[in-house]
Design goal:
Length: 391
Amino acid sequence: MQPPVKKKNNLIIYVNFAPYENAGKILDFLFERFDVIVSFRFNFHRLSGSSDNSRLIIYRKGKSFVNHPLYYIPTPPSIAFIILPIRSFIIFLQIIYYLIQINYIYGTPNTYFTVNAFTAWCGNVAKKLGLVKRTVFWVWDYYPPNHKDTIVRFMRWLYWHYDKSATLKSDAVIFLNSKLETLRKKINLLPKFKKYDVVEIGTNPIPTSKTYKGKTLRLVYLGVLKQSQGLDVFFDSAIGLKNKFLNITLDIIGSGPDEDYFKSRALSCPINVRFHGYISDDIIVDEIISKCHIGLAIYENDKSNVYHFSDPSKIKRYISQGLPVITTNVFEFSKEIVLTKSGILVTGTQDNLINAIVTITNNYVVFSQNALRLANKYYYRKIYPRLFNTS
């Protein structure tokens, strides 16, 4: 484990979307790196409970002392993309409005940091207005424009224009993986011979000696509840899993647009499924995961799927607790899962999932130790200083 990062006496503007504001412990790292953090947390997905409020939260020395609601238009999933331009414009106005106030109270912030192309574009506008000094864009995604839905395809085309502008005009650009960098170089958006930093989603390894002794087998799914994230494979496999493991459960941590759909499927499922909803407290999330044995991250392997260009924060969360992972060959990180034998890749079919779970449980301790060893490689305190060029 690395020692805590030394603090500098400065302020950072941090903009992200729920529930990813502390993915990979990034917010915890900011607490260690900056004295004051002004955090804009906007909602995109429909999440259950109090999480439906977008918030402006100001932290000093890791403690919040301002927690202010931001304007948010709650929308059903069916029209979420249609009114996306309106929601984006509201986000832009709120960022500029509150940055003016922040400048009045604190002076001009040194750093504006975000992971989203649109909010990175907002930051560059704010810089032109003199509201921030420096913008840092940690590129988390790319949305392929080949989606089957015309509206989604148009929105992705529009988003790409913000992405190009943000990538070219931000003061610092860091990529989540090499695939995101290579894509932009292939289309001549970036100089082919210039080297950019790649900083992955971090982990927070917790030393553990997990075992599975043939009693209750607990699976866990963490994340936004969308059908594209593969939970249907579990429900399709439930009868076969129940025949193999008499005592088996699934814990679902999260919420999202398809939550009601999955709750409906759970009613006829022979396996006990516990829906915990969206949990903002990381300690509680870690407690639930620590009691489980295998983490599920089975994504649809569709060419238009954004996850081909992303990094799986849920997988990083699983391996931090020594949980072997069952996932699909979607992420670049999937290669490391295979090479280190920290889990098993499946093709998203019932038999594949059942066989993968049987294979892991038959050699559980080895898979678990490999997962924790892989997590140590990506410890967030070790890799995140490169985001701000610190040592």
